[in-house]
Give the backbone structure.
Amino acid sequence: MERKGSVVVEGIAAGAVCFLNLDYETRLQRYVKEDAEREKEKYEKARTSAGEDLCSLLQNREDLTESEVEILEAHQLLMEDISFQDAISDYMEKGESAPEAVLKAVSDFKAMFDEIDDEYLRERQKDIIDVGNRFLRKLLGMKEFSIEGENVVLCAKDIEPSLMASLSEKQVKAVLLENGSKTSHAVIIAKSKGFVTMVGVSLNPEEISEGENVIVDANQGVIYLNPSEKEMENYRELAKKQEEQKKYLAERAKLPARTRDGKNVTVAANISGEQDMEKALSLGCEGVGLFRTEFLFMDREELPGEEQQFLAYREVAEKAEGNLCIIRTLDIGGDKHCSALGLSPEENPFLGFRAIRICLAKKEMFKIQLRAIYRAGVYGKVGIMIPMVSSLSEILETKKLAEEVKEELLAEKIPFAKDVPLGIMVETPSASIMAPVFARHVDFFSIGTNDLVQYTLAVDRGNQSVGYLYDYFNPAVLHSIYRIVTSAHEAGIWAGMCGEMAGDKLALPFLLALGMDELSMSPSQAPGIKEQIRNMDSSGINLDEILSLTDAGEVREYLKKC
Amino acid sequence: MKTGTYTVNNQMGLHARPAAEIAKLAGKHKSVVTLLAGSKKANGKSVLMLTTLGAKKGTEITLQVEGEDEEEVFEKLDDMFANSFYEE
């Protein structure tokens, strides 16, 4: 039996299905409460067993990143915490069931954390919620998410980002999600972990049960349920080859990306926070071409303060080993919501109040972010990138604010970096048309292909019925990119790209022929792209010929032969 | 009872690591350890309560240690506070 889905991370995996089902609600309703003594016993048992889980996770320390170890150790302490234990016992003595007692204690502490007037400390409430959930899963007889075996295909409705982050690359080979868009936070983590990933896939237990075999061919976007042993064998072989190739590339990841004819390209990482840095560096990324700061602003009731932002940017800058880190200022609106800003819904969000438009309307908020970036610049090389620029005034106004911020920091005697390059994301048709002018006012351009394609071709990338038109190989897009890069070079600034196209091997000949200075992508794509750059001779690519093509299909055919 | 007053000097305040160190030390001894910040009060043996003090950089903290081993416990905690928990 075959199923289709939409591919997020390409690749092949053959393994056993493992369903992840986190339905606390139903199980809580079914829970049978006994007398206080029994509840206490059940709770103690749950606590011991949850503690053992943590111990065994920590025993395989070499599989964990530094921050994962830190989180698990914090959880260990909380499990033993005397105040937390007392609160739970009190509730049980008052006649609550063990799971209810845990929930109430967690919610009491959460309320206390909510009162803290420091963002960073307040955030720590996540740990208590996580520990509470660990107890609950034990009490409700839910399998702790320990994955068995080495070739697991994880199947779920949705996955919390923190859970996705905790999955081991050694065990999980593929992730199939029912919900989740290609750009959701959990999916971005899956991408950075390198799991073969597809979304829009729902498998129900009637079709396939836990532990049965499945093949995920995310090169073709197909899933095969209960394949024959022979098919499994074939795909295992393919997956093995793929893994070997990946390993080979990873070993060579740190070699520079220089074409045969001696052109150097900086291959940088798109990241969402400090947690992505370890991976980015190990996969050979030279700095950060796009740090999406919106994750600091989303899913929360209040805007992040200067200190919190400063620490987040500083950590990334410090970890970048002296390479440039481009921090994109808040890019919210469009498909990214931010409850802390209280924005009203719009008819046309992609043409509405978003990104730099919001920042310039909320100058105080914008200045806090700029201050945090300038301060972080003391600890590493950072750059500022403004998204969604469509007119020169937006650049000039931002530069004025940046000057103000620097003067204020100077007056307050707070250390900051004076020479922080300021560039723009070129992603609107107007920015592309005006590129020769804009280039004289900024330090760099980075092309955001996802929006550039959508605005240039007037295609909503989320709309299935017109999705076929969304194509960065459309000659209109290629000409636009050509204009942007040449304008940058004529003005003596560098040009990079941080959209999906930057990580597409097929687009490479075109991008190299243009003389693109930097390509920024999801870290897992970097080793492959760097290897391809090393194998290429850009002098043999005829840019004029590519630009003379009139149809996306022709462009593809042409590029395949390069 | 031994008491002392300190100002939190750590960049991130009394965050996870310092709180854990206090709780670990206090937990190993018999004395009752209490930390006060403004109107809030925390049992020094509980990381959780220490964190809910919300003591960021610049917060004034009062430390109270009472019990048979108070001398030893106070001396160690005093050293930790005075040296900003040996961070930076």
User: Anything to note?
Assistant: Residues 70-82 of chain B form the longest helix (13 residues).
